[in-house]
């Protein structure tokens, strides 16, 4: 499945069908079953990672989630990340930068939210906003936006070199699907708070965002930290795919339970005597 | 159930049975069923809290978890807190203070980890360490330890006044139960990493810790922020009790879905036209 989602410098979003379920033949029910079946394996890998970090393991995983409004980032956090022990997760949500953040390089606030050892880091939006909305809304001079792609590549190369597996996911939905999801938010009073009038303004810029995503994916998909374009129209598939990506990243680390740094039998005796 | 767990200035730990299941008549299976049955209500309350915070609701909840080694704090985080959307939780684990933290007042690092609006804050250990291990290990002059109780009462009073419901939980296990749990850690290679030789040294000070807990509970159980002594020998009961405490705190806030700040019909029309 994973290989089918990977992107590179030649990836075109028009070639990726948001309705597809690459590498998975089953239907929704089968997909949900597969997701549930993967929960304990992922949880076990995470606990082993945490345990190993107490014995010096410094490798870890960072999941970067991007996508248009309503693409399903929140659902991934709730249903995939949420299945893991909260103590093993470092979640950061990046909103519109504050004045203080803007007074620094755009990677400053990102650096501060990198996961500590033993944790799965999750970015709900990320440094990519600075080449997405940054580009579309012209929030910085064109030359600076250009520079940012290189800055990102260098930054992520360092992360990977120091043991952070960077798993980049674009949740790819179609304009029609977004329309349906925004419509649902307007139809359900318990979803009204998720809708803002700005959503339509952003939606009108769909093509510009699509182009900005494509450019970002092309320019920052490296061998060390490739993008994955995850079809997002079927929420169940996107969740299954991201679970597979996280599981794969942790399996590559293959963290081990650390051996005791003390004499187990001696401690048993001492404990028994208390 | 909740009232039976509450503590006050006269509470004595010797009167609280760590094996008891106050307010719950069922067995383990019934307890686990009740826990599972409460998940969606708690999750719904949390989502409503988050939604309401986008419309100005500033009230929130802070769960303070304390207990001896192996009392089950981690299990509460995993099984009770872990059932809630991670985006709605702010979890902070307080370990041995760093040099930098020690250069500040003991509440400095606590203040920095208070939950933002819309979130359930969870403290795995807390400012109480400064009157527990602080007292037992004499990490500060006696007069300063005395001052800290007052500091804590004032601090929590401010939290409550500014809308943070402080839910304080001591997970209360017996020395025998701790022995069994530590023994299990020594018997299972996948648990060896959870054990340190310091655990026995701390265990030898059980009576001192018990006294320090009792004092802390007596001196900082206020009407605004009472302690709850949750019997911890049966993990399933402790989890059910903490779920009940969190649910109760959120029900008292009774957060509401905010009404739309825009004209819903107008937005529907505009969206349909895109």
TrEMBL record, chains A, B:
Gene Ontology molecular function: polyphosphate kinase activity
A single GO BP: polyphosphate metabolic process
Keyword Transferase: yes
Domain Polyphosphate kinase-2-related: 28-254
InterPro entries in alphabetical order: P-loop_NTPase (IPR027417), Polyphosphate_phosphotransfera (IPR016898), PPK2-rel_1 (IPR022300), PPK2-related (IPR022488)
Record's keyword annotation contains Kinase: yes
The protein's name in its UniProt record: PPK2 family polyphosphate:nucleotide phosphotransferase
Organism expressing this protein natively: Microcella alkaliphila
């Amino acid at each position: 499945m994973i290989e089918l989602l990977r992107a590179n410098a030649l990836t075109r979003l028009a070639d990726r069908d948001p309705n597809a379920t690459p590498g998975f033949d089953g239907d929704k029910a089968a997909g949900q079953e597969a997701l549930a079946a993967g929960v304990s394996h992922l949880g076990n890998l995470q606990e082993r990672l945490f345990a190993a970090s107490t014995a010096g393991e410094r490798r870890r995983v960072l999941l970067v989630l991007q996508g248009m409004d309503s693409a399903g980032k929140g659902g991934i956090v709730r249903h995939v990340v949420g299945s893991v022990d909260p103590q093993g997760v470092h979640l950061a949500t990046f909103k519109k930068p504050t004045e203080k953040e803007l007074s620094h390089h755009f990677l400053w606030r990102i650096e501060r939210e990198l996961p500590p050892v033993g944790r799965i880091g999750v970015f709900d939006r990320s440094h990519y906003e600075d080449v997405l909305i940054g580009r579309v809304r012209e929030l910085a001079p064109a030359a600076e936006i250009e520079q940012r792609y290189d800055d990102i590549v260098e930054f992520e190369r360092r992360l990977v070199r120091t043991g952070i597996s960077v798993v980049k996911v674009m949740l790819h939905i179609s304009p029609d699907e977004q329309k349906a999801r925004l419509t649902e938010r307007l139809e359900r009073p318990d979803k009204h708070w998720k809708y803002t009038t700005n959503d339509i303004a952003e939606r009108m810029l769909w093509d510009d965002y699509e182009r900005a995503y494509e450019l970002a994916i092309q320019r920052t998909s490296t061998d060390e930290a490739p993008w994955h374009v995850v079809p997002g129209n079927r929420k169940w598939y996107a969740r299954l795919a991201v679970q597979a990506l996280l599981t794969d990243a942790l399996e590559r680390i293959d963290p081990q339970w650390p051996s005791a740094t003390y004499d187990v039998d001696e401690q048993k005796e001492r404990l028994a005597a208390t």
